[in-house]
Write a structure and sequence with these properties.
Strand 10, helix 11 and strand 11 form a beta-alpha-beta unit. The strands form 2 sheets. Strands 9-8-7-6-10-11 form a 6-stranded mixed β-sheet, sandwiched between helices. The chain has a 5-stranded mixed β-sheet with strand order 3-2-1-4-5, with helices on both faces. Helix 7 packs parallel to helix 9. By secondary structure, the chain is an alpha/beta fold. The structure holds 5'-O-[(R)-(carboxyoxy)(hydroxy)phosphoryl]adenosine and zinc ion.
Length: about 350
């Protein structure tokens, strides 16, 4: 049994995965993923309108040992049944990573178990393999990884053959959703709230620029935020009512979503033409956005590419995806690369650094 531990941001997450059965060829997810916990700190950070790193790390420190016990209880196992540990080393918040990493190291060292340092983004990439019957991707693949911290379009020529096609120059798209939502007076985290009201919006009333429209190799979302800020102020000044009414907000939300989603879809479309993937993976928290899913789905249908999107619970941060990435790693590289006592936190750890030639 492998235990995966994820504490890179504001979710404390653990998963227990039957690695031996996986290596023996079993693929039924429910037999392999024997226990999973995701504990969100949303309420803790809500008053601040964003994740406070110091608070998040302290919360992980308190919760992780308790959730570790809980994950074992749910799996009807004891810690003696665990034979390997996989932990997120980065990218993420330094203090948060250190908590998960120190805990994992102590446990692995104390028990003499192999310890695998995993990349959080690679976890997101592999989340869509977690189908009822776990199923690998057909390569070459393209992945659009969109979350509160990341926006990357990645070409996967094979396992650990990753190349960045485009990444954001400034804000992540989830961050842009959240910041624009805040400007419209919506509660934190704003992405889901903004996309909900956007469904009632009228097209054409406002338009916001698509960042880096002339480039296929970069995203930029900070311009949308600035434009929204300007428009909201003008809008408020030009009406008697100081606050945006419901219809106004919906129209704003529609236009914001349109600008953000269109930029993602346009560059995905260009990348599909260029890289001719067999599989397209849409992953990360923003993959929950309905407009984005629909447009990527129709793009993939038009181009004859198989679309893989993780289930909702595995779009956002979780440890099952870390277990999945670790299982693939062990399958390919074996156990011998397991323990690295030098393993440290890597707050910046770009995906391409994982690539093997
Ligand atoms: O992957 P995730 O849970 O955390 C990070 O690693 O960042 O992604 C969270 C992000 C937040 O910015 C949130 O607003 C956004 O995903 N998000 C959405 C939607 N659901 C979550 N953005 C747009 N539309 C949604 N439906
Ligand atoms: Zn994430």
């Amino acid at each position: 049994m492998l235990i995966a531990i994820e504490t890179s941001c504001d979710e404390t997450a653990l998963a227990i995965f039957d690695i031996n059965r996986f290596l023996a060829g079993h693929r039924r997810r429910d037999d392999l993923l024997v226990s999973e916990i995701v504990s969100s700190q949303l309420k803790l950070h809500e008053p601040y309108g964003g994740v406070v790193p110091e608070l998040a790390a302290r919360e992980h420190l308190v919760n992780l040992p308790l959730l570790f016990e809980e994950a074992l209880v749910r799996a009807k196992l004891t810690s003696k049944d665990l034979s390997a540990v996989a932990v997120t080393c980065g990218p993420g918040l330094n203090g948060c990573l250190l908590v998960g990493l120190s805990f994992s190291k102590a446990f692995a060292l104390g028990r003499g178990l192999p310890l695998f340092g995993m990349n959080h983004l690679e976890g997101h990439l592999f989340a869509a393999e977690l189908e009822e019957e776990i199923r690998g991707y057909e390569f070459p693949a393209l992945a659009l990884l969109v979350s509160g911290g990341h926006t990357e379009l990645v070409s996967l020529k094979g396992y650990r053959k990753y190349e960045i096609v485009a990444r954001t120059r400034d804000d992540a798209v989830g961050e842009a959703f959240d910041k624009c939502a805040t400007l419209l007076g919506l509660p934190y985290p704003g992405g889901p709230a903004l996309s909900e009201i956007a469904a009632q919006g009228t097209p054409g009333r406002f338009t916001f620029p698509k960042g880096m429209a002339d480039r296929d190799d970069a995203f930029s979302f900070s311009g949308v935020k600035t434009a929204v800020q300007r428009e909201v102020t003008q809008f408020k000044d030009s009406t008697d009512d100081a606050a945006l009414d419901e219809a106004g907000r919906a129209d704003f939300a529609y236009a914001v979503q349109e600008a953000l989603v269109e930029a993602l879809v346009d560059k995905s479309s260009a990348a599909i033409v260029k890289h001719r993937p067999k599989t397209f993976v849409l992953t990360g928290g923003v993959a929950a956005n309905v407009a984005l899913r629909e447009r990527i789905r129709s793009l993939c249908e038009r181009r004859g590419v198989e679309l893989r999107i993780p289930e909702r619970r595995w779009c956002t941060d979780n440890a099952a995806m870390i277990a999945m990435a670790a299982a693939r790693h062990i399958e390919k590289a074996g156990w011998e690369r397991g323990f690295r006592s030098a393993l440290g936190a890597l707050p910046r750890w770009p995906l391409e650094e994982l690539s093997v030639s």
